[in-house]
Amino acid sequence: MEHTLYVVGIGPGNPDYVVPKGLDIIRRATILVGSERALADFSTEQQVTYPITGKLGELTAFIEEQLLHHDVTVMVSGDTGYYSLLPYLKKKFPHVPMEVIPGLSSMTFAFARLHEVWQDADLMSFHGRVPAVEKLAYHKGKKMGFLTDNEYNPAKIAAYLIELGWPPTTKAAACERLSYEDEHIERRTLEEMIHLEGFCHSVLVVMG
């Protein structure tokens, strides 16, 4: 009997924002894989769990072994189609039956918190990469959303955009811990954002 690999987007993290089917699959899972934070929030004592770390080879071996006997559910933050583990899993398990359950991306959630639409925004990531300079070029009315990391936090990105010609008075908002009780949003100009500390793993929205 073939077993299924489920990939479930858990949105910004709070279970209230996971689609019902995804939450049902997570709750019924025998083998549950996810970040340590996700496992702490969603797993039960009856489930076999495995934390996602930087050791993807070991993760692959674990999933491969478990699929011999069980379905495996992998939780990914945000949406499955937006900078998630899905491409890696498709490459490693091309012949395994797979079901993908989308979730809210942290990017769309951030725009919602700011009461802004994202249909006209350029969405990019500074998480482990740097967007091409031409994609960051300024023009009046341009709207952008970025995922951030430890190296490129909102302060560094703000300074970089000013170097590329963005007006220092451009409005921006840094959003972290979205959907949790300690959610934190800072609305500042790019010039003011340069002095913002923290917000390493967050969303930065810039509105030109």
From TrEMBL:
Keywords: Cobalamin biosynthesis, Methyltransferase, S-adenosyl-L-methionine, Transferase. It comes from the Bacteria. The keyword Methyltransferase applies. InterPro entries: 4pyrrol_Mease, 4pyrrol_Methylase_sf, 4pyrrole_Mease_sub1, 4pyrrole_Mease_sub2, CbiE, Cobalamin_biosynth_MTase. It holds the Pfam family TP_methylase. Residues 4-193 form the Tetrapyrrole methylase domain. One of its GO terms (biological process) is cobalamin biosynthetic process. The keyword Repeat does not apply. GO terms for molecular function: protein methyltransferase activity. Gene3D superfamilies: Cobalt-precorrin-4 Transmethylase, Domain 1, Methyltransferase, Cobalt-precorrin-4 Transmethylase, Domain 2. It comes from Veillonella montpellierensis DNF00314. Pathway: Cofactor biosynthesis; adenosylcobalamin biosynthesis. This is Precorrin-6Y C5,15-methyltransferase. PANTHER family: COBALT-PRECORRIN-6B C(15)-METHYLTRANSFERASE (DECARBOXYLATING), COBALT-PRECORRIN-7 C(5)-METHYLTRANSFERASE.
